[in-house]
Amino acid sequence: MKNKNLILNLFLAFALILFLQTSCNAPSGETEEQTDTVAEVVHEEAHEVHWSYEGETGPEHWAEIVQDCSCGGTAQSPIDLVGASKDKALKALQLTYTAHDELEILNNGHSIQVNYPVGDFVIDGVKYSLVQFHFHAGSEHFIAGKQFPMEVHLVHVTPENQIAVIGIMIAEGKENEFFKTFWADMPAEKAEEPVKKALAFDVNKMLPAKKNYYHYVGSLTTPPCTEGVKWFVMKNPIEASAEQIAKISSLMPKNNFRPVQALNDRKIMEF
Ligand SMILES: [Zn+2]
User: Fold this and answer.
1) Rounded to an integer, what is the distance from CA 255 to the centroid of its chain?
2) CB atoms within 10 A of CB 252
């Protein structure tokens, strides 16, 4: 049963990658190719770097340089989470994450990403499968005008490519025990293949004890900035030591966060 779920979730993860790739024009000079193996899909995705966090390929140019994408849309992420209203329809987060027995960690040139295809997030009876989590430094979302040193994103998808992301702020404080489990394996250099090894670890240990949250509908915060993403940003931060924050930040592009976007006519809800 566990294996069956793992295979399904891996399939979903790669379906998402394919979906994200094909929802944008291929960069100039490249055409879409039929990819028939997982390795090829990952390879194609990894070498297609045509955006960044600064200069001429930075966030203010994403809408121009990544054509047919949603980066210039009106329901984008991240945002400053302020002026939220209580919504009685919101419920406690239904998370059924399970322990994992394999570490798969990647430096994709934009972030440090841990593939974690076990566990679900159920929203209104719809099951979103956890695919991976990754880091931004500083945080992408602000809470009432305040930016945190880091933010971690847990990315979930449904078989229909609906996306839900849980964001957790990381404040400077005591050493984070969960981060220590993959501390020595974080790849210093960008690579196309993840580092893999047998390792028992449990993403539940990363979550804050109190899981109150802000909710709104936004987008992916990297190209193609796909809209319709359900965001759940935890109100309570987790902690990491100054040394841990500095180390993880040093392995990613400097300031790998997208600036906050206009709220426009959206509402922020809170639980
Ligand atoms: Zn992210």
Assistant:
1) 15
2) 24
pTM of the model: 0.85
CB distance 139 to 202 below 8 Å: no
- Does residue 110 have an active-site annotation? yes
Q: Within 13 A of 143's CA, how many CA atoms are on the CB side?
A: 20
Interval 128-137: pLDDT, tens: 999 999 999 9
Name the catalytic one among 100, 110, 136, 153.
110
Walk me through the domains of the chain, giving residue ranges and CATH numbers: 2-270 (3.10.200.10)
Token pair 């039929």: residue: 34
Residue 103's Cβ-side half-sphere holds a number of Cα atoms within 13 Å equal to 20
How close is the Cα of 68 to the center of ligand 1, in Å?
A: 21
What separation in Å is there between the alpha carbon of 94 and the centre of ligand 1?
Answer: 21
Strands 213-219 and 269-270: antiparallel
